[in-house]
Amino acid sequence: MATHALEAADLVKTYPAGRKKPPLRALDGLSVSVPEGVVLGLLGPNGAGKSTTVKILTTLSRADSGSARVAGYDVNRESDQVRHAIGYVPQKASSDPMATGMENLVLSGRIFGLSRQDAVQRARDLLERFGLSDHGDRPVRTYSGGMQRKLDVALGLVHRPKVLFLDEPTTGLDPEARADLWNEVLRLSGQEGLTVLLTTHYLEEADRLAGQLAIVDHGRIVAEGTPEELKAGLRGDSVQVELVDPDTDGTVRSLLAQLPGIDEVLVEGNSLRARVDRGATAVPEVLGALEDKAIPVVAVTVSRPSLDDVYLQLTGRSFRVTEEAA
Question: Are residue 57 and residue 147 in the same domain, yes or no?
């Protein structure tokens, strides 16, 4: 039986009321566990409770109730041991922009108790590993966004942690830099057996990186499993239709709801989505029904279930729209 690197049970966290605002229940009984050597993806829109979960598990905040253990240590009673057992890469850059990459890494190593000789050697090893050797003597303020994030991850690895927390690590990165960081995360888990907890609001990132995925909604885990398991739980196909004009009066929604074999109809502006038993059969019926009502169509696509479809079924809301609202 696999040993769990991280376990949280019934975490509750409420932030006090602000001016003219009610108290915010950020976590509402969140429970999750992560086996050793697995990348756990916490997927949810902004405001779902992901960052609050990370803050509690990294001892930066305390839950109102519930319990959690990381690397075998209780986050409340053994917080010092937890901090030495984890690496933490926050959303915002954690390096000193005026210092060089080498200086940042050596300082981090010294803070964690490495001798100066060991800290320098560890810094050199990490700079080489992340492709930053040629830039180690440059101030971090001269680094590109992708280089800065690589350095942030390297800083989280200086002391060889057992669990690495990555809080929205690729936000703001261009596609090439994002892909580079994805490859590094996969290597950390696959080749080195490091346990990684990754928070993200990118569906593609969760699908690509997570060996285990937990979907967070309003402070609770609403589904858990591998990305493939979660998608396989949805039968049929997903049909998406782009309309010329938005369905402002609900005509399109009502029309499709009457067709057999079509479920979970969602209309967002000019975009129509539905779950169907068989895409090849449903598409002609959908297009025929729209044509009969003189509703013009731009394009139609059929695809296998995605994580967005999983989220839609669980919450009744599109992930994209929820993210935009947040």
Answer: yes
3-state SS record for 88-114: EECCCCCCCCCCEHHHHHHHHHHHCCC
To 5 degrees, how large is the angle CA 286–CA 324–CA 23? Answer: 125
- The model carries a pTM of 0.83
H or E element, residue 308? helix 307-315
CA distances from 20 to 16, 17, 99, 208, 302 (A): 11, 8, 43, 41, 46
Residue 50 burial (C-beta neighbours within 10 Å; 0-12, 13-18, 19+): buried
- We report the CATH number of the domain holding residue 257 as 3.30.70.2470
CA distance 188 to 126: 12
Report the candidate in 14, 48, 76, 74 with the shortest Cα–Cα distance to residue 221.
48
- Which residue, 187, 152, 155, 193, is CA-closest to 171? 152
User: Do residues 46 and 186 share a domain?
Assistant: yes
Q: Per residue in 60-72, pLDDT tens? A: 999 999 999 999 9
For 227, the token pair is: 């990305």
Q: Are 156 and 88 in contact (CB under 8 A)?
A: yes
Task: Decide if 225 is inside a domain.
Answer: yes
CATH code of the domain containing 85:
3.40.50.300
| Cα 63-67-68 angle, rounded to 5 deg | 100
pLDDT tens figures, 125-161: 999 999 999 999 999 999 999 999 999 999 999 999 9
Closest CA to 223 of 318, 315, 317, 323: 315
The residue range of the domain holding 239 is 235-304
14: which residues sit within 8 A by CB, 6+ positions away? 23, 24, 25, 26, 64
